[in-house]
Amino acid sequence: MSKQLKFGSSVRITWYDSRIRGGWRQGMSPNELGRVRSIGYVTEDNPKFITLTTSISKDMDVLDPITIPKGAIVLVERIEGFDR
How many domains does the chain have? Predict the structure, then answer.
């Protein structure tokens, strides 16, 4: 999605999350990244990342924000009819 998203836009983002496995390991076996889908309201969209929140209050307070780097994003889909 090339157009910048506005505050309160409702979206579903598919993205890859990092993984870590602690402790010693033998050899270098490949690990797959975790594919994630997040649904929420956009609070910020800039060239480096998109931040989503689960809820926005009438006073514009946000709950449980998550910031996703643009390099990890596979797909951004607008959810019509649910914008804040």
Answer: 1
